[in-house]
Amino acid sequence: MNVAVSLPSRVLWHALRIGARYLPDTASEAWTRREAARYWTAEYGVDWRANAHWRSGLGEKTWHEVGESHLRIYQLFAKAFRLPPWPRVMLEWGCGGGANAVTFAPIATRYIAADVSAQSTAECAAQVRAVCPTPVEERRIDLDQPRAAAAGLESQCDTFLCVYVIEATPGQADALEIVRIAESVLKPGGLAVIQVKYHTTDPLTRGRRRRSYRRRSALTTTFGIDEFWLRVQEIGLEPRLIHLVPRNDLDGRYAYFALTKP
Fold it and tell me: Which stretches are annotated as coiled coil (predicted)?
């Protein structure tokens, strides 16, 4: 009797668990935005510092590799477009703990570090001061009004960098707002390097807003490669090149887009 009752229960439990993977979003975009703001503005320990790309979270080797790999991608794009291999005025959207800044700031004349976390912008600026005299301007991003963080920068930047951020946004609308901000701050001819996490034909690779944002933040928002290309065109930037990283030490399915402002 007990076996007859428990076996169907187990089957039902597993069926529900598998089926839940294919259910529509379980959290609204507004709810996810609030959860994202709570998560990124509160320090949760080593895991949080790793996700925010702090030196103390990633470790020396990985922390340096993050910035060096992104500088190589940027310079690959710049060479293809016959642009200088160094930025002049650069805005990094989602600077974290400075893994990219310590590589880019020494070859820039002005570095603008924007992040949801004031702790991260302060850490980023401190790491830059330790390696070079390039001035760092800290700007805090309010997820409800992100454009305010770029106030006064219209058409001033020749370089816009945004990596490991899009996949953690509350949804595609918020992700595309970042592209609009890039379009607004870039000078004509300026270069934006924006990385997205792409999904494939496998439904499990698609981003979903979950109630447990903190545990799966890096799989919240994804795009098809052609989908993001077309959406960027609608906003007014020109997609020129894509660099794919199917897998690295942090995660996988990364697409780096080189976008220029006409």
Answer: none
